[in-house]
Amino acid sequence: MPKATHFPEAGETESLLKLITNRGAIEFDHEREGAWIEVIRKMDEVYSDLLRYEVDLEHKNAELEEAQAFVTNVIESVSDILIVCDAKGLVQQVNSAFQHTLGRGVADIVGKNIADVIDDADNTRLVPLLKPRSASDVVDGELRFSSEGGSSDLFAINSSPRHDHRGRFIGVVLTGRPIGELRRAYEALHKAHHELQRAQRQLVEQEKMASLGRLVAGVAHELNNPISFVYGNIHTLMRYRTAIVAYLDAVHGKGKAGDLAVQRKSLRIDEILEDFGPLIEGTMEGAVRISEIVKNLRRLSFSKLGEVERVNIERLINTAVLWAVRTKQVRIDLQIEVEPELWISGNEGQLHQVIVNLVENAIDAMRGTELPRLVVSAVRKGSEILFRISDNGPGIDKDHISHIFEPFFTTKRVGEGTGLGLWISYGIVREHGGELSATNGADGGATFSFTLPVA
Ligand SMILES: Nc1ncnc2c1ncn2[C@@H]1O[C@H](COP(=O)(O)OP(=O)(O)OP(=O)(O)O)[C@@H](O)[C@H]1O
Ligand SMILES: [Mg+2]
Predict the structure, then answer these.
(1) Would you say the CB of residue 396 lies under 6 angstroms from ligand 1?
(2) How far is the CA of 408 from the centre of ligand 2 (A)?
(3) Rounded distance from Cα 118 to ligand 2 centre (Å)
(4) Predicted confidence (pLDDT) per residue in 113-170, tens digit
(5) Does 356 contact ligand 1 (Cβ within 6 A)?
(6) Do 149 and 209 share a structural domain?
(7) How many Å lie between the centroid of ligand 2 and the Cα of residue 193?
(8) Dihedral in degrees, nearest 10, Cα atoms 46, 48, 51, 52
(9) What's the domain range around 354?
(10) Is residue 2 part of a domain?
(11) Residues facing residue 254 across a β-bridge
(12) pLDDT tens-place string over residues 271-308
């Protein structure tokens, strides 16, 4: 700041004083002279105070200018937009990030109502941002501004209220950053996620259709055999019927007369009668096979648990294992390890079927094993019960292990297995909240295991 006035330096007033007293010594008496000296000393003091104040002021001013430059620099450097509004929504100050967003100079913005620079469609979003409220109440929102080239990108806005020293609401400070890019990325992600879900559903659907296809093909294959021999037998029986009718006509004298014995021979009546037994038996067997397959299919078509009850594991395992061992009529080294007083809630009949299936499979697998040994165990592991059925048979063939749970997969001879046992068991265990799995032991034998939640 340039100096406007010249104040005497500290020693200057002293010499001035001397000059006055020397020159006018004769005119002034001593008293007056003392008063003058006093006045001039005071003046000198005031001058030097003023001088000090001026220097101080200059310092303060320089500091203030520096602080202001610093604040301005900071505000201008932030990439977020900044808008200061008064209580009526009139713009008081903006930073260059906001000017840049609008493509307008500060003079073109300051003094305008904030509503005039935002996108018309966002007017309702502006209201809560300008609302008077307490100091700690920061409000979030989203706005688009009306810029030179149309509507701006979407901005995430924080609105902080301003208050004067008496605590009265005097406006808001809005800060914001563009989120259009983020929003677009999020939307793209959202879309991709949807696509993925749809593809997954489609895949599951395709897998379902494929396994349905396999099931239907299996059912067709299984039914084809007994149906074809029932069909063949019926054809033969129809041919036989014609011969028998002709012979009976001869017996009752309705047909052409002749030797009955010759007729009986030429119509092969005796062979026919002999064939009747096996034909009917075969047809019966075919019908039984068909009804068995249908029964199995109906059994596996349940998708619900049915009746749920409290099931005691010790009782379940003992009865199921004994049942399976008794029907298979074999001598095996049987070991049952079950913790007493374990309970689960489920359908006892279905769980019984699972254990029977697994034990029967193990017994079948150990047919060629010298000292067949079966271990069935159920132990509590936290909130679950782990079931294991282990045998010392040949184990599951490496190539088969991924197929054994498929419907109609069997390595047994026709009539010895339908290949539905494991598939049904898998479904039941899953309905009960578990997962049936199979592994081969390190020293041979197969182990089937699953866990179910404790009741
Ligand atoms: N403990 C086991 N050890 C070795 N292989 C096994 C064992 N259990 C099952 N398998 C294999 O899994 C196949 C499928 O078993 P699954 O119980 O589904 O049908 P299955 O026993 O052949 O016929 P079903 O049970 O309908 O009478 C069996 O044919 C057998 O090859
Ligand atoms: Mg089986």
Answers:
(1) yes
(2) 10
(3) 74
(4) 999 999 888 889 999 999 999 888 999 999 999 988 888 889 999 999 999 999 999 9
(5) no
(6) no
(7) 41
(8) -100
(9) 309-453
(10) no
(11) none
(12) 999 999 989 988 988 888 888 778 777 666 555 567 88
